[in-house]
Design brief:
alpha+beta; 6-stranded mixed barrel; 10 strands
Length: 413
């Protein structure tokens, strides 16, 4: 085997310029594959992190997934009722104190109750539709990231008590109101109540900045004429990946709809999987093109070394050694290109990580590209490169193994 390895190195060195070009092609393919994987994986990780951070990991509402079983279905086997809509229950989550106590006993994380109602907010002759969310400030800080998104005032102003309200800066601009102004909230039941703006937040989400207002839970209960009621329980887990199990257990026990963040964003997560498939398909195509360069080099060497192959076979080298010889040459070029590609990929990823820019259209600011540094990207790119190199080397190697030494020597002489 050592002799085969030395012969392979001699063949490669004999065509130094072509070998370098082929190895450089593989290196470029590996480098750009690593950079593309790092950029796309970084974007995906950043997007998922934002999903996990900006929404509850599990959200329990006072809705039912399916309508309750009807008495006729229990009385008669042949009865089948379809199209029933779960009944709206203004009482919200029944016995919320017991439900919260049970959840706190086993959930590894934090949870907060709330009452969400639809209403209209008025100020100085202007009005906007909004979701008015009643919360308990002391526990809300553990589940809501909005506490860190205030432009003026702070979330703690809500805990002072009184008729304070927190609204988005986009809503404030539409109303023409500012910090300290008094606005009027009108509920769907027709009740009105004046609130003083104690804080302006900006999350970057137009739906929230323009359509949400936070008040104390007791004030929301008064506005909706639902004393002691809640219709949402939001949960933040220590491990977000456990959300489906927690949601399944909570829904089975409480009977109310519990939605994990994975379920709420199922279509988005499926799109990310499709995007990964496309990404690795493109990576494979890039390295397959680089493999044609290796195929060209090994084919040329096989043609030029036909006499040497004939002599080696006449000396007793079996066909298997011929296959190994040219397969080794292809893998050697692929391995050299992979090593060079690691350096190119690292430099490209490092350069991308230094890119700075800003996005002001939505009010958000992103100063750096999201980059994922992972050894797995280098391993996958190298595996693709060595795979294409092995295929590129095997095809000429199989042809070389079939050479009849008598025909070659007779023709050569």
């Amino acid at each position: 085997m050592r002799l085969i390895f030395e012969i392979a190195l001699t063949h490669i060195a004999g065509r130094g310029r072509q070998t370098l070009v082929a190895a450089f092609g593989v290196a470029i393919g590996v480098g750009f594959s690593i950079a593309m994987a790092a950029l796309m994986q970084g974007g995906q990780d950043d997007f998922v992190r934002q999903l996990v951070d900006t929404m509850p990991h599990v959200q329990i509402t006072d809705e039912q997934r399916t309508a309750r079983r009807q008495p006729a279905e229990d009385a008669f086997d042949v009865v089948a009722i379809a199209g029933l809509r779960p009944r709206d229950d203004r009482r919200g989550i029944i016995n919320p104190t017991a439900a919260l106590s049970w959840l706190r006993a086993w959930i590894p994380g934090r949870l907060a109750p709330s009452l969400k109602l639809q209403g209209v907010i008025r100020y100085s002759g202007r009005e906007v539709g909004a979701s008015v969310i009643g919360v308990e400030p002391t526990v809300e800080v553990g589940v809501s990231p909005i506490v860190e998104d205030f432009r003026q005032g702070s979330f703690s102003a809500l805990a002072v008590g009184g008729n304070n309200v927190l609204i988005g800066d986009t809503m404030a601009n539409r109303l023409g109101a500012g910090l300290g102004d008094t606005i009027t909230v009108v509920s769907a039941q027709g009740l009105t109540r004046n609130f003083k703006i104690a804080g302006l937040f900006h999350t970057g989400s137009t739906a929230r900045d323009e359509g949400e207002a936070y008040v104390l839970l007791k004030n929301a209960q008064i506005l909706s004429e639902r004393p002691n009621a809640i219709n949402e329980i939001r949960i933040k887990l220590d491990d977000p990946n456990r959300a489906p199990l927690v949601a399944q257990r909570a829904e089975a026990e409480l009977g109310y709809k519990a939605v994990a963040w994975q379920e709420a964003n199922e279509s988005i997560l499926e799109a990310l999987v499709v995007r990964n498939v496309i990404m690795y398909t493109v990576v494979g195509a890039i390295l397959l093109v680089a493999g044609f360069g290796i195929f060209n080099i090994i084919s040329t060497i096989t043609h030029e070394k036909a006499r040497d192959i004939a002599i080696m076979k006449s000396l007793g080298f079996p066909a298997g050694d011929m296959r190994r010889l040219f397969l080794l040459e292809g893998l050697a070029i692929g391995a050299a290109g992979s090593v060079g590609g690691w350096l190119i990929g690292f430099l490209l990823v490092y350069g991308l990580s230094l890119v700075r820019f800003e996005i002001a259209a939505t009010g958000q600011e992103m100063t750096r590209l999201p980059i994922a540094w992972s050894v797995l990207h280098y391993v996958i790119a190298s595996a693709f490169a060595l795979g294409s190199a092995a295929v590129a080397g095997y095809l000429p190697a199989r042809r070389a193994a079939r050479v009849n030494p008598v025909d070659i020597i007779r023709g050569a002489t």
